[in-house]
Amino acid sequence: MKNKKRNRDGFFKDTLFESISEVVWNILMFIPRMIIRLIANIW
Prior knowledge:
Blueprint: H1 2-42
């Protein structure tokens, strides 16, 4: 019983970590694109 609960907690932690890391990665990829667009619009 305890082992199943531990596996489920690990699964939720992994899922949560993957979601957070994906959001952070998307933000990091989004910022340079916006900067490039801004520079292209200024010139």
